[in-house]
């Protein structure tokens, strides 16, 4: 696996050299992980000018149990005191090694840390690395997609088990905790993000924080969860009706959100503009009179972070590529009544390969539980 | 309660004016919450130059279920699109209102966001607010301490129940999840931080991420947890022995860490230097030959964040005040064997008031479970 990380670093190094930086300092957590395979929180990666060095505040090999080991072939510098800043130490090393220019992640470093970096690297020009690593992370390799496939399967399993249990009378909080326990039972390293469960008037809200509201007959119940597996994060949301027969407004709203989500999924193809995927789903819900109730985007990339590039929104610039995993997650919430959210993780594939690959396969029929 | 937040803002505003800033922009999440009572993630608070405004990317009153409502008397500006940056919009508002100088949190804003703030506030001088709000947060009022007392009681209850259950054969992960469920059962809004459970060779490690290691006879079992209650976060750690009789090395190590933790607790008094609290605990473990195995600090402040000022470390500058809640949490981990961590949340009180107030009251005897 070391070669994968070395190749990623080589690609970034080329990008930096083309931009006029002799060295680069990567400090964003997911970015460091992408380039080295695993590192303790707060670690910084120095690329060049001679060789790459991972700078850590604690020994990355001491914690044998965590998934935080860097690739074996990478030199590691452990700071003498855990209170030190690896980014500052990395900048110091870059200058000692002769770098006259150093690209840093200005969207990640705070002004205070940037000043500390500048003060030790006064001899070098500081450039902005921008989101170069984030952009490199957008298209996933087969290994990454396989890992995401497992993360999606775990979320499907946890959700499937929940559907077989008694739901009426239980609180949103307890259902969320149970889902997280089941994720771990099925092999997840943890939840991919805070599990959201919304019942009745809370259903359908994006990012709803579970409360003590109990599930009642006639409720919509919406659930959004994901599994963290070997660093990668899946995402799925489903909405159910509690009781034997959904009300007419529930069937209508469900059908509208389902149609929008399907339209979004069907728009996923290499070459499609991000905003056109958003548009495909959004027009369906606008036509149904829900335009004002929609969130800022209809989906987003997933990988080492739950919400990463690309963003599928009206103002997003760029086009989809093959092998980009994204969510399609429209939802509508009617204040006081509740709502519907339907969300899948998919991988963009050319039509010749069968079109978008659905990773989260739990049924999207409106189940009455 | 509105008056409490207004008084906090008035104090900060005085501090800014004394430092030559006509307005201040607060963007650190816990800092905003401290000054307004509650706000959606990403909100920014503009203090002055005329009146204070809370800037949010979403309506803070729309989410009736969250604990994120700002004080009623505070003007709120909701951005037209959720993708906007409240800090940038706040800076724009400050300049429109005539501020010629604006203090921002340089340790919180990234270089990229700071640049965006600067570009809309080109007419104003940008100053550094530094950690002014963090410093203001160090001494807690009675209401804050009462809230922390409940948060500590919840953690005690969750831990107490765990001790009554069967532990052998269960994994670290499952015990951690069960503790988090019990925290919520007892009224917590969530865990204060990721619950850590370490068994056998993993016991005693600071911040250990729970694994599939099962609890075995003869193990040390160390547990670190805390409750989040109305924004405030308690912390407690205990170490137990599994089985009928601890080994001699276990008794010896436990006694050493216990003596260090007691020395640290006993050093808590108004006027004591932070570093002297660290020293009091550290010398005990250095004398026992564990100097090399100690972490960078022996305790830290708790409140709206789990790890906030003051830091009780060898290099910390400053002295304790009354009404400052801190942890005292020394631990020693012997590679391959395991270790001990003992951690309490206490409030610094003068000797006339009975000395330090212990909030986490679970016994610190070495229990064999």
Automatic annotation (TrEMBL), chains A, B:
It comes from the Bacteria. InterPro entries: Creatin/AminoP/Spt16_N (IPR029149), Creatinase/aminopeptidase-like (IPR036005), Creatinase_N (IPR000587), Pept_M24 (IPR000994), Peptidase_M24B (IPR050659). Residues 148-349 form the Peptidase M24 domain. SUPFAM superfamilies: Creatinase/aminopeptidase, Creatinase/prolidase N-terminal domain. Residues 8-139 form the Creatinase N-terminal domain. This is Peptidase M24 family protein.
